[in-house]
Amino acid sequence: MDNLAAKMRWQMRHTASGRSIPQMNGDASHPNSRTPLIHNPSRLVHNSSGDPLWEDSRPWVRWPASFLYLAYKTLQSNIYVNVFLVFVPLGIIAGALGWNPTVVFILNFFAIIPLAFLLSFATEQLSAKLGQTLGGLLNATFGNAVELILSIVALTNGEIRIVQSSMLGSILSNILLVLGCCFLAGGIKHHEQRFNTTVASTMSSLMAVSSASLIIPSTLYAAMKKSDGAEKGKQDHILVLSHGTAIILLILYVLYLFFQLRTHGDLFDGESGEEDDPDHGQQEPQDEQILSPWAAGVALIVVTIMVAVCAEYLVNSIDSLVETAHISKTFIGLILLPIVGNAAEHVTAVVVAWKNKMDLAIGVAIGSSMQIALLVTPFLVILGWIIDQPMTLHFELFETVVFFLSVLITNYLISDGKSNYLEGAMLLGMYTIIAVAFFVYPDDATDAAGKGF
Prior knowledge:
Oligomer: single chain
Number of strands: 2
Shape: globular
Strand content: under 5%
Largest sheet: 2 strands, antiparallel
Distance between the termini: 102 Å
Number of helices: 19
Strand order of the largest sheet: 1-2
Radius of gyration: 29 Å
């Protein structure tokens, strides 16, 4: 009885003060001060049966919900980079409306960065179903898709110098900048890291062959300078040599794939660095499979189209940017464009090196540069042959020497199968020196054969 009287007095005080009275008997039919505005937030993403909307039996509910859910999960996968997606519509609008070329270049430059990450994400989701070897090959192939799209757009516009500089810059950024960051990041966390010397030596040998394929056309042109004959005839000889060399390089790349996937696949298995890792043997959380193979394929197509559109506007603004900002085409193609195209690979390689998976890091860095040298560049030469563009393997003498020295230094550092942060600093220092050199390198410092390209 006393408890009932106390309860009635307590209710009268709260009623007089104007405050709502929480129900003492657990009845939730009346709202109180703690009642949320939305009684059941899960109803926003669930149907009346309690199933998620993307699993609803009604197609008109399931498909839009599935699209929104997958888009949300994809954007959430790398929220810090995907913030830059705002530059994609801005870059397209700027290019379509003919804004200032410098503004168009900058907007599309930043627009391609998140698109490269989305392309890498969709590729990883698709390759997860294909196994480690085929998945790695698919990652390497689509990892160079941005550079390939940029180069095809530039080639169709007759920008041969941009194409050549972009190809050379992609190789240099991989073997110096990416590999240097891998050695530096891994060396900070680990005293010394090891990797498969057989795989590294195979890739480095192929890189040496590719560097020779650039040296031979340059030396041939230097030798032909002393001979009599029209300049047009000398350029025709360089074109014939480039076409034949491109076919041979493509054959070598096919043989390398057969070597890697069929006859000597055992050499490419295993992670040497993990055996010396004190955390080796611990289970790592598996990455969540967000996209189905079909969804990943559709995402690859959509993102590739967006990259092509942004690349078109970016390449078309280069000439005006060179005139207004006084930056050489060589520097843009060799330093700036590879940074955009290789952004996703940079992050991936550094992360796996930090985890002491150096075989994978070497495969991303050197494997990607080898694919540029043996597949993408010869393909562009053949494509130029088809569309009647004088794309050759005759690079400028200075560029050829820089490429040869970079391959030589990289091969020397990976020959022992060990790495540390000092070696990474060496590679980064070399890349910085090359970047400064090409910043002051003028576009008109070309030989006669290069003037027509």
